[in-house]
Structures are given as C-alpha cells and as structure tokens.
Amino acid sequence: MSAVPAASFRDAELAFGHRTLWSGLNLEIEPGEYVAVLGGNGTGKTSLLRVLLGLQPLSSGTVHVAGQAVRRGSAEIGYVPQQRAFDDRTPLRGRDLVGLGIDGHRWGPRILGRKAHRERVNTLVERVGALEYADAPIGQLSGGEQQRLRVAQALAMDPSLLLFDEALLSLDLHRQSQLAQLVAEQRDRTGAAVFFVTHDVNPIIDDVDRVLYLANGSFRVGTPAEVLRSDVLSELYGARVEVMNVAGRVLVVGAEIVDHCHPPTTPEEVTR
Ligand SMILES: Nc1ncnc2c1ncn2[C@@H]1O[C@H](COP(=O)(O)OP(=O)(O)OP(=O)(O)O)[C@@H](O)[C@H]1O
C-alpha cells in the first residue's frame, strides 16, 4: 500500500478575475519528494504555496496536505516566505525567531518545557550555522543571516512538508550551496517533501526529483531532464525558447519575452 501523499492537487485551478494562473493541475507529491517550482514573475508560484498553506482558496478543484484538506497554521508545514527584511527595531533576537517555529503557531502553554525548548532552539541554530549571531537583534542581521534563521524556524518541528519561496535569494554562492545541502539533509533525515520556488534551480538541481514549470497560464511537470528541454518549454511558452548548458549551468533563453508581466532583464537561469 502506498503512503499518503505529502501533498496533492486534483483538477486544481487558480484564477484571479479573468486571469487564469494555472488550471488542470493534478499532482501528487510523495513523502521525501523534492519539487522545484519554476517560472517567470507573476506565473503563480507564490500563490501555489499560499494554496498549500490554506491562505489562498483554489478557484476550483481540491488540495490536500498529508491527506487532510488544507488549513491555516498547520504544524505539518514548514514555510520560508519570500524575503522581507525585518525592521531594525523588531524586538526579537535570532533565537527568539527560531523558537517561534516550535510553538509560535499556537496559543496556550509551550509544547516543550523551558529546558527542552532552549536545547531544541540551540540545535536548530547550530544546524543552520547561526550560533555566532543568534543572540543579536534580528533586525540588525544581514539579509543572509536572517534567512538562515528563518530556515531554522521552518525546520523546527520536523514538518512533513517544507515550502521555500526564493529562499536562496540573498545568499552568496557558498551559502546557497550550504542551505541547499541543509534542505536535502532534512528531507533525507525526516522524509519531508519539499516545494522549492526558485528562479535559479542550479543550486538545488542535484536534489530535485521533479520540476513544476509554470508559464503562460499553463505548466509542465516531470523530471528535470523531461521538462528542462528546448522543445518542451517552447511548446509551453508557445514561442521559441532555448535551454542551454553554459559552463555547467543551464539557462533558459527566450522565456523572458513571453513572461510579459515583469520581464527579467537577464536570461533566466534554471538548470545546468
Ligand atoms: N489575492 C490576489 N488577488 C488578485 N491577484 C493576485 C492575488 N494574489 C496574487 N495575485 C496575482 O497573481 C499573479 C501571480 O502572483 P504570484 O505572487 O503567485 O507570482 P509568482 O510566480 O510568485 O511571481 P514572482 O516570481 O514575481 O514572485 C500576480 O500577477 C499577482 O498580482
């Protein structure tokens, strides 16, 4: 008997007014499966995560997380939102932010006792390599440092589904690969499924099982080798799109012309 899917979409459609972001989405993600969500600006990647979080209802169809209808505040989900810097007056230390991942989603007494809570926070802070600055006010940390603490918060309760929205954005290449490794380790250790929204799949490509590529009000889903091909993406975009391997990285060239909402100024890097 197969396990309950970590997440599943059935005939799912999301539209705002007359604009359909995607429709006919049938997708089951198994525990431990790693899915990269790719596509240009405004194609509905963040909205897809918001649907899983129970923050955005579908226009039609159904969505489940761990076999249950989605709901807000689910402890099954760890989420790293698209980055917004904390105000430097935010009255939180780095480790307080991480601690919110343990019991910040619920009212009432702490899930863990004071000592166990402290130890758990310390383990998480150490795991993301943030011990050095975890006691500093969060708003005084760099974007990359804040990001590592956000990741620690998302991992806090070993959720069965991890959602990352452009989590690599403010990190240098070394930190990108460290974070990618951390996510892969967490997946391997806990069997969590992963949805990773990104404009550059290169740092995570070795870990990715499937790609969900959104464009032009439609999508393609499959292994990176199945989806990240000139013929497949040209058909999806309805225009000539080249997937090129340049110095070990694959670039998608031509997609920016069709991603007309907020065209990127450089070729979109998606895989090597
Ligand atoms: N609640 C809403 N009501 C109306 N339109 C919305 C709503 N939420 C999102 N949109 C629109 O849906 C489109 C997709 O937004 P979304 O943030 O999901 O895109 P994205 O693929 O994550 O883009 P980016 O790469 O720029 O972050 C955008 O045009 C956005 O303005």
TrEMBL record:
Domain ABC transporter, chain residue ranges per copy: 7-241
InterPro entries the record matches: AAA+_ATPase (IPR003593), ABC_transporter-like_ATP-bd (IPR003439), ABC_transporter-like_CS (IPR017871), Metal_Ion_Import_ABC (IPR050153), P-loop_NTPase (IPR027417)
GO molecular function: ATP binding; ATP hydrolysis activity
Signal peptide positions on this chain: none
Keywords attached to this entry: ATP-binding, Nucleotide-binding, Transport
Residues forming coiled coils: none
Pfam families assigned to the protein according to its UniProt record, in alphabetical order: ABC_tran (PF00005)
Protein family membership: Belongs to the ABC transporter superfamily.
Name of the protein described by the UniProt record: ATP-binding cassette domain-containing protein
Species this protein is from: Kocuria subflava
